[in-house]
Specification:
single chain, 190 residues, GTP Cyclohydrolase I, Chain A, domain 1, GTP Cyclohydrolase I, domain 2, 2 domains, two-stranded antiparallel sheet, 7 strands
């Protein structure tokens, strides 16, 4: 499903009017077009399912290391910067740092692909909790590993700029496979 920029332009114009301003005044005249272009970019991930994102970034390499049952070799990519928009308020979730770890099972994914997956998943109307789950689902599909951990730390403007007006950091954990019960693996992601 493609983002309908024409509809966005019309709705933004209506919002400007509903706020009591003139959408034809100099400072606002091009705002509906700018917002439509911005939404097309920041919500790009809404055009794709998790499976389609997995297919997009499915660039793996055969893992030449020998893994045995008693080894816990792990790949970890820390502090991937992303942002997203809260689906409850259409407010920015910002300063989000994503850490992703997985235990390879015969193939590894290019490190930049992990960051690209996190970025694309963030480009949806989201909940922070679902971002972690979506990243884990996609990484499991691409790598074939059931052992995936995702930690996200972020701030939410829907909490900082309105309502309670208290900036706070929210941390979410998504653990699959060996990460679910193994506290040592969980701590290695922190």
């Amino acid at each position: 499903m493609a983002i309908d920029t024409e509809a966005i332009r019309g709705h933004i114009r209506g919002i400007i009017e509903a706020l009591g301003d003139d959408p034809e005044r100099e400072g606002l005249r091009d705002t509906p077009e700018r917002v439509a272009r911005m939404y097309e970019e920041v919500f790009e991930g809404m055009n794709y399912s998790n499976h389609e994102i997995a297919q997009m970034f499915n660039k793996t390499f055969a893992d030449r290391m020998e893994f045995t049952q008693d080894r816990q070799d792990m790949v970890v990519v820390r502090d991937i910067d992303i942002f997203s928009y809260c689906e409850h308020h259409l407010a920015l979730m910002y300063d989000m740092k994503v850490t992703v770890g997985y235990i390879p099972k015969g193939k590894v994914i290019g490190l930049s692909k992990i960051a690209r997956i996190a970025d694309m998943v963030g480009k949806r109307l989201q909940l922070q909790e679902r971002i972690g789950s979506d990243i884990a689902d996609i990484l499991q599909e691409v790598t074939g590993s059931g052992d995936v951990g995702v930690i996200i730390e972020g701030r939410h403007s829907c909490m900082a700029a309105r309502g309670i007006k208290k900036p706070a950091t929210t941390k979410t954990y998504t653990f699959r496979g060996a990460f679910e019960q193994d506290k040592c693996l969980q701590m290695r992601l922190e």
